[in-house]
Design a protein that fits this description.
alpha+beta
Length: about 210
């Protein structure tokens, strides 16, 4: 082989080697760029992880605070339940006491009348004194009951009212209009506008 041929072959090899080197350099540059990009991505990921970790810490703090609030609410609820139970017991006791002693004032007032009866019955010398004493006691008892809100239901001559009167008898009577009460057979009473005893009456029916 001639020297020219050898030189030419060497030049070809050198070109080839240069070309391969250029390709390798280019690949190296690409790899570096990829590594740089990957590195930047890793940095971003680390930052994101740090942010997520900070958020998790805040969430954990919030959860702990909420748990404390829940415990406090449960404690308050238990206290309120205990207070309510005590209040219910006291209210029930007061209610029972009110029912038990509802007539206390009335009985105290009637006791005076009761004692008056005793004095009249034991101290009256004759029938006249007895009658006068009973009439006085009757007036006193009537006044006491009226102060408590007791009133007699008007009857004779009134128009019959189902809400106040109870008809036991009926008859045609020229002196009364149809539906008017001819006579009161038994007195009726209201206590503070509430009928506690119906007036039993005879009614005119034409």
């Amino acid at each position: 082989m001639t020297n020219d041929k050898k030189i030419k072959d060497l030049e070809e090899k050198l070109k080839k080697i240069k070309k391969e080197k250029e390709l390798q350099d280019k690949e190296l540059e690409n790899t570096k760029e990829e590594l740089k990009t990957t590195s930047d991505e890793l940095v971003d990921i680390e930052k994101s992880l740090d942010d997520v970790n900070d958020e998790l810490i805040e969430i954990q703090k919030d959860i702990e605070n909420k748990n404390e609030e829940i415990k406090e609410c449960e404690s308050n609820n238990q206290r309120l339940r205990a207070d309510f139970d005590n209040f219910s017991k006291q209210t029930e006791k007061q209610k029972q006491d009110i029912i038990k002693f509802a007539n206390e004032n009335l009985i105290i007032n009637i006791l005076d009348v009761y004692e008056d009866f005793d004095r009249v019955l034991t101290q009256s010398k004759d029938e006249k004194e007895l009658r006068e004493g009973v009439e006085l006691i009757y007036s006193k008892l009537k006044s006491t009951l009226e102060k408590e809100g007791l009133e007699e239901i008007p009857a004779k001559g009134e128009k019959f009212d189902y809400s106040k009167h109870e008809a036991l008898m009926a008859e045609d009577n020229e002196d009364f209009e149809n539906g008017e009460i001819i006579d009161e057979l038994m007195k009726g009473y209201t206590l503070k506008d509430k009928v506690i005893k119906y007036s039993k009456v005879k009614v005119c029916k034409k």
